[in-house]
Amino acid sequence: MQFLNTDLPGVILIEPKVFADERGFFMETYHQPRFAAAGIDLPFAQDNHSRSRKGVLRGLHFQLRHPQGKLVRAVQGEIFDVAVDVRRSSPTFGRWVGTILSDANRRQMYVPPGFAHGFCVVSETAEVLYKTTDVYQPQDERSVIWNDPSIGIEWPVKAPIVSDKDQSAPFLNDAECFD
Q1: What is the pLDDT of residue 165?
Q2: What residue numbers bound the domain in which 134 lies?
Q3: Which of 14, 60, 63, 147 has the most beta carbons within 10 angstroms of its beta carbon?
Q4: What is the CATH number of the domain that holds 156?
Q5: Count of domains in the chain?
């Protein structure tokens, strides 16, 4: 596995080693000692699986009192995956990083606690698996609107399909964030 740092400290791209032959392929998607050596050393508590169609945008979500780290990968299709620093005391507050995750590139992105997470589907459909370091707590979920101009995410979808909840999320400057 290769662990690649991004422009946001703590957000890490993971490229697994893939063993492919005429039968198919095999790869490790999680190896605790290797992840710990790369700085991802929180226990995972929950696995999630979503399926979405082209143009769906989910996010930007985070939990405030029970923060979650997320290990995200697309097992079918292609997504543009995004992390936004929502720690007000951070020198990178409000900055974002995004990357393509797909079944073809097999990359994963680790989004640490303290960051909002979202993605949009750029293929016809996409299935996304992600592990979280804490369980989902609906009363603790917070969000930031996906198209906040102060963040300036360059989404590859012009008119995304967004849930009512995500469409009514606050702007970053009005959101309840980490200190």
Answers
A1: 96
A2: 43-174
A3: 60
A4: 2.60.120.10
A5: 1
